[in-house]
Amino acid sequence: IVVVDDEPEAVKEMLHGLSRSGLNCNAVSDPWVALQMLAHAKHPQIAVLDIRMPELDGLQLVERLKDLRQADMPDIILISATTDIDDAITAMRLGVRRMLRKPLKISTLVHEVKIAIAESGWRNKDEQPKLIAAPPSAPKISIDTLVLEAHCRRRLLPESLLSDHGGRMFL
Fold first, then answer.
1. E strand or H helix at 50, and its extent?
2. Is the pTM of this model over 0.85?
3. DSSP readout, 96-151?
4. Which of 35, 69, 90, 132 is the most exposed place for a label (fewest CB within 10 A)?
5. What angle do helix axes 58-69 and 85-93 make, rounded to 10 degrees?
């Protein structure tokens, strides 16, 4: 796990929380150093990146990393003090599936990292994940729906926006 944030106190707090939970991680406050680490890592698993950093922000770092690695990308968890819809859309287009908002609860970060590790565990074995095809009648999901879902999961909007009267999630 590589933690990247330009605020040394934030890096220290995340590193301490993740390490205390038994997770091996490296922390860096320079995004250029992080890019080199992630680009040359044999099998990077997780990268926790702040979106707002000087010189090279988290989204730019993901873009450059995709250009360098092309395959075998680490799972990215973005963190930000702002809730910018354009950032969320850009992140999703880059393949980022997790965004957390500052101030960050370390327990939430640890939980999300453990989920990402569990979901990406197939990369550490020589197997592919099982793909399940959606039924032909499945509705198409727009980027707006995905952003809405992300906001609901972060409790910025009520989850009732995504469920029908039977309590089932639309997504």
1. strand 46-50
2. no
3. --EEEESSPPHHHHHHHHHHHHHHTGGGGTT-PPPP-PPPTTPPP--HHHHHHHHH
4. 132
5. 10
How many angstroms separate the CA atoms of 49 and 58, rounded?
Answer: 6
Using the structure block, give the residue that is written with the tokens 């890592």.
41
Positive or negative, the Cα torsion across 29, 35, 46, 82?
positive
Q: 66: helix, coil or strand?
A: helix
Whether the CB-CB separation of 6 and 53 falls below 8 Å is answered with: yes
The residue written with tokens 């860096």 in the block is 28
Query: pLDDT tens digits for 70-114?
Result: 677 888 999 988 777 888 888 888 988 888 988 889 999 999 999
Residue 152 neighbours by CB under 8 Å, 6+ apart: 158, 159, 161, 162
